[in-house]
Fold each of these.
Amino acid sequence: MSAPLFSLDAVDAGYERAQVLFGVSMAVAEGEVVALMGRNGMGKTTTINTLFGLIPCRAGRRLIDGRDMTDASPHAIARRGLGLVPEGRQIFPRLDVRENLIATARSGAGPWTLARVYALFPRLQERAANMGNQLSGGEQQMLAIGRALMTNPRLLVLDEATEGLAPLIRAEIWAAITHLKAEGLAILIIDKNLDALLNICDRHVVMERGHIRWQGATAALRADRRLAEDHLEIAAAPPSQERG
Ligand SMILES: Nc1ncnc2c1ncn2[C@@H]1O[C@H](COP(=O)(O)OP(=O)(O)OP(=O)(O)O)[C@@H](O)[C@H]1O
Ligand SMILES: [Mg+2]
């Protein structure tokens, strides 16, 4: 079997004096869709930040395609085909939609073009000339996903991509993720919606206080729904002023 697309191997990491991750080992293979679950503050975003080289591995290793990239820069890691939709979206408020998308484009590296992003999210085409800060929360989230796709990733990582969005907008985003999965893209998803995760993911990784508490296939998690519910924050009702 070929090496996984990426793996973290017994990684310790943290911030200044606080250690947050303790011996974290997980991997995602080509074409696999994996959920990273855990309650607030358990270390999900820190795991993602470590994967992308935004914080260093204090111990353990980061492998991409089986190659040791423990000491690689965030830029070198992204170039290996990892695309991040960060918590909080982080789009450019003073660039318009089109400019936001072009800013991260790596042309020639794969199939993604403006036209394909607009086909995935027709709303973005309607809003192409609007500034980032004129978009609704849902549109900003679509833009953040589109921007990550413009880097032509082999692995897309979504950190709370449906957080705080109205149900209809959430459904649009899940539909887009389902479409990307059908195209064979590997995806790592952090989200609070257990039913959506059980529907779309092949495998689940559960974190608790910086440790991997459980990992397994969807069928196993379905059979032990209690385990999943114990490790997911109950999704808050969407704010009523959010119209998407
Ligand atoms: N920049 C930082 N500096 C210091 N400590 C941090 C920093 N970011 C996160 N932490 C701490 O690291 C721990 C894990 O946080 P992390 O953001 O990885 O959790 P999470 O699982 O993504 O939570 P959430 O569901 O709220 O997004 C928490 O105790 C948090 O307070
Ligand atoms: Mg987080």
Amino acid sequence: MATESIIVIGAGPVGSFTALAAAQAGYKVHLLEASNEVNTDPRAATFHPSTLEMLDSLGIMDEFIALGLVARYFDYWDKPARKRVAQMDHQVLEGETRFPFVVQTEQHKLANLILEKLTNYPNATVHMGTSATAFIQHADTVALTAVGPEGTLDLKADWLIGADGGRSFVRKSLGIDFEGYTWPERFLVLTSLHDFEASLGCAYRGYFADPGGWTNLFKVAGDDFKGRWRAVFPVPEAETDEEALSDDSVARRLGPAAGRS
Ligand SMILES: Cc1cc2nc3c(=O)[nH]c(=O)nc-3n(C[C@H](O)[C@H](O)[C@H](O)COP(=O)(O)OP(=O)(O)OC[C@H]3O[C@@H](n4cnc5c(N)ncnc54)[C@H](O)[C@@H]3O)c2cc1C
């Protein structure tokens, strides 16, 4: 088994994790990523204890924690009253998990850390800027065609893993539907350097209840480690994207909490 080969498509958190786990297990691995770089948009950043256990199995835990923030508490707030109504302490999980806390590390840092680790594995090759375009399943193997910086790339492997996101080319090629329902909701994510821990006593994860519109507030380290607070707001149906992204909307939503009008 250890000489089998695996192609992984997509270097998001799922594909990069899978590629490193496969390389560590001795498989010959090709990881393909369509973009030239890992996407650094603000996306997932909270890693819960069960995910931390998985990451620990790759031996990257200390470095992963060093890239983010350890959050022992999360809070529930009454937003109109500006009052914390409950504080949850992950420490109650001590004895259940080796990681009774969450780690707030932006997902692109995980992918980039793993890509760096993969360079230590001669059995792993990372193809950035390379889009998988077609594959054929044979009796024992899969043949994949991709287009990369050097033109067409033809690869053959025992297994192909599609970790290519919600619009997965692999899933569609296999005729698998994305079943389910998309909630007609939009969220606005604002990132601020304002220190909500100092001004309001916020923990690194806060959930603010308000009949007029809830808010979630998280702290991440940022690429410069200066710390960033991400505030998430629901966008009412009647509000256009342009209105939601305007300076007025930012001031109205974030200004009062940040002590600005
Ligand atoms: C704007 C935004 C905000 C989000 N915020 C949160 C959040 O706050 N909390 C949370 O838990 N989750 C959040 N998510 C969801 C989270 O980002 C995803 O669940 C996560 O990225 C999924 O990881 P993945 O590895 O499965 O796929 P992805 O991260 O989507 O990675 C798939 C990769 O495959 C590559 N790819 C696609 N097609 C091909 C191809 N043909 N060939 C080669 N490569 C290909 C893509 O370029 C991409 O890098 C957010 C998502 C978005 C878009």
